[in-house]
């Protein structure tokens, strides 16, 4: 490709580029809000140039939120930034995430749910050394009476008898990313949607 020497730009051009970058971050904030509200998902922003049709905001979103993400036919990444009431996730609260009977993530390969500290987006140190819950762990998880599956998301242990289903959260803000590898048709087409994180009220 061609070389680029920023030092040779005029002051006016440098100012215009800096303003353009600032505008892009403002636009990105709006894009992220659409993710939080469930109006967009990973399948909208990951893909080839032809698939994205020149949508540079989507390309920016993909690079910032999950660079090197796969197309929706290969993987889907439902993101959790807010709970069912559209409130930011925070470890000062307790949450559950329940898959009704027959509603586990539909995949041909496997699925996972990973915890991240915010705003650093780093894994969270915890007593169990558990950073995710995934489908290979299903034989060790406790099922609900009706055959469904409830995951427990909170900072402190829910008790030894419930720790099998516990995904430890930090003490403050956090996010979670679900990953569906080789998703089945109902997930790709949006007929299956990830369940919300519901805050547990005292």
Detailed description of the structure:
The chain has 202 residues and is an alpha+beta fold. The chain folds into 2 domains: 10-69; 72-202, Jelly Rolls (Sandwich). It is 24% helix and 19% strand. The chain has 5 helices and 9 strands, in the order ααααββββββββαβ. Strands 1, 2, 4, 5 and 8 form a 5-stranded antiparallel sheet that branches. A 4-stranded mixed sheet has the order 7-6-3-9, with no helix packed on it. The longest helix has 26 residues, at 11-36. The radius of gyration is 20 Å and the shape is globular. The model has no long low-confidence stretch (mean pLDDT 94).
List keywords for this structure.
202 residues; Jelly Rolls; five-stranded antiparallel beta sheet; four-stranded mixed beta sheet; 9 strands
Dominant shape: globular
CATH class of the largest domain: Mainly Beta
Q: What CATH architecture of the largest domain do you see?
A: Sandwich
pLDDT average, as an integer?
Answer: 94
Please estimate the helix content: 10-25%
Give the class from helix and strand content and strand pairing: alpha+beta
Which secondary structure elements does this structure contain, and how are they paired or packed?
Layout: H1 11-36, H2 42-45, H3 49-52, H4 56-66, E1 75-76, E2 79-80, E3 95-99, E4 111-117, E5 132-134, E6 149-154, E7 166-168, E8 174-181, H5 185-188, E9 198-199
Parallel strand pairs: 6-7
Antiparallel strand pairs: 1-8, 2-8, 3-6, 3-9, 4-5, 4-8
